[in-house]
Each structure stands twice: as C-alpha cells, then as structure tokens.
Design brief:
The complex is a heterodimer of chains A (about 270) and B (about 400). By secondary structure, chain A is mostly helical. Helices cover about 80% and strands about 0% of the residues of chain A. Chain A contains 13 helices and no strands. The longest helix of chain A is centred in the N-terminal third of the chain and has 34 residues, at about 60-90. The radius of gyration of chain A is 24 Å and the shape is globular. In chain B, helix 2 crosses helix 3 (about 105-120). A 6-stranded mixed sheet of chain B has the order 6-7-8-3-9-10, sandwiched between helices. In chain B, about 30% of the residues lie in helices and about 30% in strands. Chain B has 2 domains: about 5-225, P-loop containing nucleotide triphosphate hydrolases (Rossmann fold); about 270-400, OB fold (Dihydrolipoamide Acetyltransferase, E2P) (Beta Barrel), CATH 2.40.50. The chains are: A mainly alpha (about 270), B alpha+beta (about 400). The interface of A and B includes residues 165, 172, 175 and 185 of A. Chain B: Keywords: ATP-binding, Nucleotide-binding, Transport. Chain B: It holds the Pfam family ABC_tran. Chain B: Its EC number is 7.6.2.9. Chain B: This is ABC-type quaternary amine transporter. Chain B: One of its GO terms (molecular function) is ATP hydrolysis activity.
Chain lengths: ~270, ~400
C-alpha cells in the first residue's frame, strides 16, 4: 500500500515538475536554429545549382585531396611531437617542467595566424633562413599546423599521464621492463583515450584550418576552406562556394560522428 | 645475505624519509618492517626495489652492489597496496608481463603463467580483466605476477591494507601458505599492522621517524621489547613508571617480587591480556591469606560488588591498607606473596567491547597520569565504568624497558 501510494505521488508530481523544466530547452533550440541551422540550410539550398560543376572540377578534387593530406599529416605530426613532449614533461624529472607545461597552455590562447606570420619572418623570402620556396609548399602549412596544434594533443595527454598511478610504472620497471617497454606497453595503452580525443580534435581543426593557409599564402596549396574563400569572396561564384562549403560541413560532421563513436559515445573530453 | 642495506639514507628535498638504515635479510627469511605511517618503512622498501635513489649508503643483492642499478635490472618481485595491475591487460598477460620483458620463449611463458595462477588459485581467471576481479583476487594476481619472474627477493608493501578485515585474515593465511611454497625467497614485508607482522615474519624491524628502532626475532621482540616504543607499538603494552632501590623494583609503591633493577630501564612493560581484574573485596580476601586463584574465580560471582558505587574502591583500598603492611597499602597497592603477582588498586575509566574480549582502561591510585589497559576475555564480568578494581600483574609477564625514544 505504502509503495503504491508513493508511486502515485511520483506519477502525479513528475509531469508538473517536468512542464516547467521542459520550457528551458526552447531558448537554446531557437538560438541554434536561427543562428546556425537556418544559415546552413540557406547555404545548402544555394549550392544546389552548382553541384555538378564543382564536384566534377579538377580544382575541387585537388583541393579535397590536399586538405585531407595536410590534415592527416599535421595530425600525425602533432601526435608524434605532442606524445614525445608530454612524456618528457610527465616522466623525465627536469627543473622547469611545470613552466613548460604552462607555456603549452598559453599557446592554446594564441591565434593560429600568428604562427603563420612568425613563419614568414623565419622562412620567408626576406626571412632569417631565406629557405626559398619552402613557404609556398604544403609542408610549410603542415609545419605551421603542427606547431600550432600540438598543444591540443598535449593537454589531454598531460592530464591522462598525471593520473597514471606511479606504482604501476614502478612495478612494470621492477618486472624487468625498460623505459621503452614501459612506455609502449603500459603508458600508451592507458592514455589511448586521451590520444584519440586529442588527435581527433586536431584532425577536425586542421581539416577546417583557414588562417594559417591564408597567411602563408602558398600558391600551390589550395585547401577546401581556401577554395570557398576564393570562390565566394574573390570570384563571386556564390553557389560554387556553397557547394564546397557543404562538402566541408559533411566532412567535419562525419569525422565528429566517428570520433564520438571511437570515444564510446562520450563527449570528446579535452581535459 | 640476500638483501643488505648499509647506512641507507633517503632525502626528498628537505624531508628526510630514511636515516642511516641498516638491514640484512637472508634467503628463506621473512623480515617485517613495522611502523606507523611516515616512519620510513615504505621508503626503505622502495630503495631496495630501486624506485628511489638513496642519498647515501649502499644496497646489495646477493653480494652485488645494486645501488646504481635501475629497478628493471634488479630482478626483484614487488607487490604494492593498490595491486597496480595493468588495467588494459588480461590477468594472464599481467602475469606474463615480466616473462615477456625477459624475452622468454612463448611456451615457457604460457607454462609459467599457468603455474603461477594455479599457485594463487586464480587458474580459471586468466582471460578476465583486472577490473572484473575483487580486491583479494587482484592482490593474488599481483603476487603471481611478482613471483612469475622467479625473484630471489619479494617485496610486499602493505599488501593487505586495502582489503576488508575478513579478507585480510584469509589472505594472511594465503601468504603463510605461499611462504611454504617458495621457501628459498627472501621476503621483506612492510606493514603498519602488528598482527600481520607477528603472523608472517621471522624477524621484525620496528621503525619510527625515518629510523630503525629495534630489530629482533618476532617472538623475542614481543616477549622482551628492547624499547618503550616497540613495547607499545607491538602489542600495545602498558608502560608504568617504576622506582628502583636496593630492595628491588616498585610500581606505585608495590614491590615487584623477583624483578631485578636494571640500569636505565625505568618503565614496567606488561601486555593487556596478561593482567587480571579482581573486585576490591576479593583482593582483600586474597591479601588476607586466601588463594589468588580463588580470588580470580570469585570475580564472576562478585559482580554485584564490582558494580558497586564509587565508594567501593575507597572501601576496598582501606580494607587492603589494614590487611597489608604499612606504607604500601596506604599508596593503594599490595604485593601478593602467594602467586608472585603485583596487585594495583584503581578504578575503571573506560571499557570497550571487542567481541572476543573487552578492553578495560583503568587508572591506578597513586599513578595519576598513567592508564592501564586490560583485556578481559569474553565470559568474564567486565566491571562497570567508575567501579573500583584490583589489577593483578603476574610477575612472569612483567619486564623492564628503557624510557624515552629508542
């Protein structure tokens, strides 16, 4: 009896309480709808007449391939450099490790084009190194993106590594595993979620990177965002720009979906 | 000697975690490092394993200096409190970790892993992940993993501290069994729990404030503690201040028959379970010529007396004063010639029921600042709070220890 009575009160009280709360979902939905979804739908509609031309063009296909190439190379570079630096900062006791970690955090606050700008001072035609055509090659873009996005890999890695129990590393060492084996068989498998999160985010961001590519102004390096910019703003081919933008959006959302699945349905946690 | 530490000192920044530590452990021997937290016992173990580098001193394994060797090249088995199993590896792969690091052939790895899991009774759990095991099972796997590499030294750092009481008792039995199965290994066992140390160790090293206080065979250390700290930490002994003169040793004015005064030893050490409680009336009867044994039996029947109002104690001690000779009685104590025991009069200030026994805390008349803990076995009547009692201290359970630190 008592249980039934309890159940009844729950049934009675829940909808009333839910009514009020349910309304709170509206403001964000309206905001997102008006500010994000509606413009995207406009872009998609606008792109319809241009689809055939754009998708068939060599220009588009080259840009797509180049975009993926640069994004994947940059992400791999970030993962390698970021893992190395995170391991050194976490496990090699050197004075000032905290300072370095702090600097890495500060890097996250800087705008990406700043890296590109600084590159022109080092590698540009009048720069310190005068490295000829390097700046106009895709490798300059990759190097700049690795420089800028490595902290995005390091941050989650540093957090994950600081949570690794010290005893586990000690015991692994006592069982006869050298530092390399401990890193490969204990540390890396256990920070894999952080690697996936950091790498996934970097891939997403490098796919859409615009500032660095624009600032380096590499002629032979046309990526999808550059193409959208050129077509839409420079050549006034608005439908063409929209078509490419739709591809870009599909690429990003697809990658994001894969990333979420890889992280077991949880949100990609950065820290 | 399998393990030898000479003057090992470890500093972490400005804190000194271990100071001038000497220890040697022979093959087939188990030494327990016993001490409160922060006493440096874990640091000593970590120094042996190679996890911390000593600031000073040498560490030898089987005669070879390993002080500058990394842990991977020491070949020591280590088991820690939180098990530290590798969460992404299955149980069998955890146990195989050390064998694979040593690049043993596949067939040998499989065979050895099987043997080890069999030994700790986890043979059917090889395919599980550590998170699917209970704490006790995880600790068994950790032990199997440590022993798989056939170390000559096994270091156990509080291996049972994370388990609940029942499991801890079971695992203690398992460890004793293990001890018999791998008899040739030298074991260093770090714990803050004296019962684990007494159950497992051949010798116990008592530590305090980063230093070794005492080291001796377990039974010896328990029976005749060389220091006040060891006496109270190992077995929670009572320490009573004594006075010494030509006549012998006196506590609270009562002479302890047969105990010789020793230079520098000014505390009487007696275990709580060695003391017997009697109601004041029975004591006076015993002092008047009755047998001690009779007196203790009378305790049960004289419960009403034990529970009498506060005045009972004074009444009892007055009666004693009359019965015993002069001054001693006035100080609230009597000596018993019949059974070689000292009788101290006091009152109960606290009682804790512990199931199989009760621990009663008493104040002794004439010893204002010392309380005496007495274990009363279940079945005996526990005197009520505030009741006057007579504590019977058999002389064979009494020993003298030096006062102060160390």
């Amino acid at each position: 009896m008592a249980v039934e009575a309890l159940g009844a009160t729950v049934v009675v009280s829940t909808p009333r309480r839910r009514d009020g709360r349910w309304l709170w979902v509206l403001p964000p939905l309206v905001l997102i709808g008006v500010l994000v979804v509606y413009p995207l739908v406009l872009v998609a509609i606008e792109s319809i007449p241009a689809w055939g031309d754009v998708v068939g063009s060599a220009e588009f296909r080259d840009a797509l391939v180049r975009t993926v190439q640069i994004a994947v190379s940059s992400t791999v570079g970030c993962l390698v450099v970021g893992t190395f630096l995170a391991v050194v900062i976490s496990f090699v006791p050197f004075p000032g490790a905290r300072v370095v970690a702090g600097l890495v955090d500060t890097m996250l606050a800087l705008p990406s084009f700043l890296v590109a700008l600084s590159f022109t001072f080092i590698y540009g035609t009048t720069g310190i190194l005068r490295a000829g055509g390097f700046l106009t090659s895709p490798w300059a873009v990759v190097l700049a993106e690795v420089t800028f996005y490595t902290p995005f890999v390091m941050r989650p890695l540093l957090a994950a590594m600081s949570r690794l129990p010290r005893a586990q590393l000690d015991v692994a060492a006592s069982l006869g595993a050298g530092p390399w084996r401990v890193l490969r068989q204990v540390v890396l498998p256990e920070v894999r979620p952080a690697l996936v999160a950091g790498g996934g985010l970097t891939l997403l961001l490098t796919l859409n990177e615009f500032g660095i590519v624009l600032f380096l102004g590499a002629k032979g390096t046309t990526t999808l965002p550059m193409l959208v910019h050129t077509k839409g703003i420079v050549m006034f081919d608005y439908p063409g720009a929209c078509a490419i933008a739709v591809v870009q959006i599909a690429l990003s959302l697809g990658l994001y979906a894969v990333l979420r699945m890889a992280l077991g349905g949880r949100r990609a946690r950065l820290d | 000697m399998t393990v030898q530490l000479e003057d090992v000192t470890v500093h972490f920044g400005r804190t000194c975690a271990l100071e001038g530590f000497d220890l040697s452990v022979a093959a087939r021997e188990t030494v327990a490092l016993l001490g409160p937290s922060g006493s440096g016992k874990s640091t000593a173990l970590k120094a042996v394993a190679g996890f911390v580098r000593p600031t000073r001193g040498r560490i030898r394994l089987g005669g070879n200096d390993v002080t500058d060797l990394p842990p991977a090249r020491r070949g020591i088995g280590v088991v820690v409190q939180q098990y530290a199993l590798f969460p992404h590896l299955r149980v069998a792969d955890n146990v195989a970790f050390g064998l694979r690091a040593a690049r043993k052939p596949k067939a040998e790895v499989t065979r050895r892993v099987g043997e080890m899991l069999e030994m700790v009774g986890m043979a059917s759990y090889g395919r599980r992940f550590p998170r699917e095991l209970s704490g006790g099972q995880q600790q068994r796997v950790a032990i199997a993993r440590a022993l798989a590499i056939q170390p000559s030294v096994l270091l156990l750092d509080e291996p049972l501290a994370a388990l609940d009481a029942q499991l801890r008792a079971d695992m203690l039995g398992e460890l004793q069994k293990l001890r018999r199965e791998v008899p040739e290994i030298a074991i260093v066992y770090v714990t803050h729990d004296q019962s684990e140390a007494l159950a497992l160790a051949d010798r116990i090293a008592v530590m305090r404030d980063a230093r070794l206080v005492d080291i001796a065979p377990a039974a010896e250390l328990y029976a005749a503690p060389p220091s006040a700290f060891t006496a109270s930490f190992l077995g929670g002994a009572n320490l009573l201040p004594v006075a010494m003169d030509e006549g012998g040793v006196t506590v609270a004015g009562a002479v302890i028959p047969g105990l010789k005064p020793e230079e520098g030893k000014s505390l009487l050490c007696i275990r709580p379970h060695a003391i017997r409680l009697e109601p004041p009336a029975a004591a006076s009867a015993a002092a008047a010529g009755g047998e001690g044994v009779l007196g203790s039996e009378a305790l049960g029947g004289a419960g009403a007396l034990g529970g009498a109002e506060l005045g009972g104690a004074e009444l009892g001690s007055e009666a004693l004063g009359g019965a015993a000779m002069g001054g001693a009685g006035a100080r609230g104590a009597v000596e018993d010639a019949v059974e070689d025991a000292v009788r101290l009069v006091g009152r109960v200030v606290a009682a804790q029921w512990r199931g199989a026994s009760s621990q009663v805390t008493c104040l002794v008349d004439g010893l204002a600042e010392v309380s005496v803990r007495v274990d009363v076995p279940a079945g005996r009547r526990v005197p009520e709070f505030g009741a006057g009692v007579v504590m019977v201290l058999p002389v064979e359970a009494c020993s003298l220890v030096p006062a102060g630190v160390g």
